[in-house]
Amino acid sequence: MAKSDGGIRILQGLLVFGNVVIGMCGIALTAECIFFVSDPHGLYPLLEATENDDIYAAAWIGIFVGFALFALSILGIVAVIKSNRTLLLVYIILMLITYAFEMASCITAATHRDFLTPNLFLKQMLERYQKSETENNNDKWMSEGVTKTWDKLMLQNQCCGVRGPSDWQEYTSAFRTTHSDADFPWPHNCCVMDTQGSPINLDGCKLGVPGYYNSNGCYDAISGPMNTHAWGVAWFGFAILCWTFCVLLGTMFYWSRIE
């Protein structure tokens, strides 16, 4: 079988264990990325409207990589147990390709996390929230998605705007062109609501009376979940890469030692 049977047997066992871990990590990575792309917080329309949703692309790559790692871990275990040089070579080549894809996923998720700034979402909110005049169907669809998402976001998180209600006062917006400042200093969803979903005091909300409107911004409610998912995809993927690198080195050495 090999040039040094005892040592190779130990290496064989370690490689089997390493591939078992890779397989489990692949399943976990796939599950994590599926959870991310399912958009449990309903924030994807905001990111899509920025025309830079590469974080979701990284998660889709992660789904593919997770499946690939699981399948390749099985191939690796079989190849190691059988000590088949051809199977091992196929395993190494395919694993290197998968490794490259996972590197791309990790780098994309980590770098685009810094893209999620308050100004990014502020610009998109001002331009698209309740935009009445759209250029085409795609623009209309994006604007409707942004409007629905912001309405839901402000109600569920009891917040207003990106940094606060002042966003609607300090900047020109599509919302302001169709709503008077007296009746709508900010959207009514910024008001504190009763159990029926109506403002508890609409006049107090319009006047900015504390307790009748939500004075905090929504940025934390947006960036928090997105950053969490982005870091999860990036750093869990990086941990998998480190482990896989060690297993690959061991597999290459094992391939060179068997006959």
TrEMBL record:
Belongs to the tetraspanin (TM4SF) family. The keyword Membrane applies. Heterodimer with uroplakin-3A (UPK3A) or uroplakin-3B (UPK3B). This is Tetraspanin. Keywords: Membrane, Transmembrane, Transmembrane helix. It comes from Charadrius vociferus. InterPro entries: Tetraspanin/Peripherin (IPR018499), Tetraspanin_animals (IPR000301), Tetraspanin_EC2_sf (IPR008952). One of its GO terms (cellular component) is membrane. The chain crosses the membrane at residues 12-37, 57-81, 88-110, 233-255. It is found in: Membrane. It is a multi-pass membrane protein.
